[in-house]
Amino acid sequence: MNENKTNINWYPGHMAKTKRLIKENLNLIDVVYEVIDSRIPYSSKIVDIDDVIKDKERVLIFNKYDLCDTEETKKWIKYYKEQGYKVVTTNLNEVSCVKDVLKITNTVPNRRTRILIVGVPNVGKSTLINRLVGKKAVGVGNKPGITKNVNWIRINEKFELMDTPGILWPKFENDTVAFNLSSFRAIKEEVLPIGKVVIYIIETLAKYYPNILKERYGIEELPEDILECFDIIGKRRGCLVKGGEVDYDKVCNVVMNDMNEHIKGVTFDRY
Predict the structure, then answer these.
(1) In this structure, what are the phi and psi dihedrals at residue 177, rounded to the nearest 5 degrees?
(2) Which residue of 16, 55, 132, 253 is 20 to 30 Å from 200, comparing CA positions?
């Protein structure tokens, strides 16, 4: 991990409000589900959540497991189990594996078990809730900030959920965490320059998944000038303006969309 501290500070008011509401309602909670992105299982883990939830039962949900590099992500699963978490993996395209989350959750006698569900933005928390409930209970979108308020949602006779807006912390631990979150749109694109994020994505793919760069973009190896990669991608994907010049903004959007919609089998957090 790169230990350099970043100057990025992104902490919207609704996130501060969320932490306060969690603390105020903690005595009502039996179990905490924390949803993380299996592709960034370290970066998408809420830094200080254990200080907030105290001694509540914890279930760590590795969401989007079908999109990750399972060999690398399994190292993180082992790590978190050793930290005392119950861990379950979910692929949101398969309802059956989502139901596995409830199977490992302890129930409370004589009333519904109350579950707090938390996670950083865009880890698939809202989609997971809708799968658990069996209908569209909350709004879903491929960008941070869809959920704004705390809501109670009934799953069935045994369980009910307290949904919360996505949480981030005031300052990111290091640049790697910030860029990982940006790469998978857990941070709004205005926070970090998209060009720098795309360069980070290209360099990370080159380091760990060179076949993806080669097969998807025709990049055999990184040139000395990283902007040459933008030219290669732009010409291959038709990101051109009048006169045949490469439109770098379009290239950035193509790479970001590929990263979040099409590229599979990657884990950017390395154990």
Answers:
(1) -60, -45
(2) 16
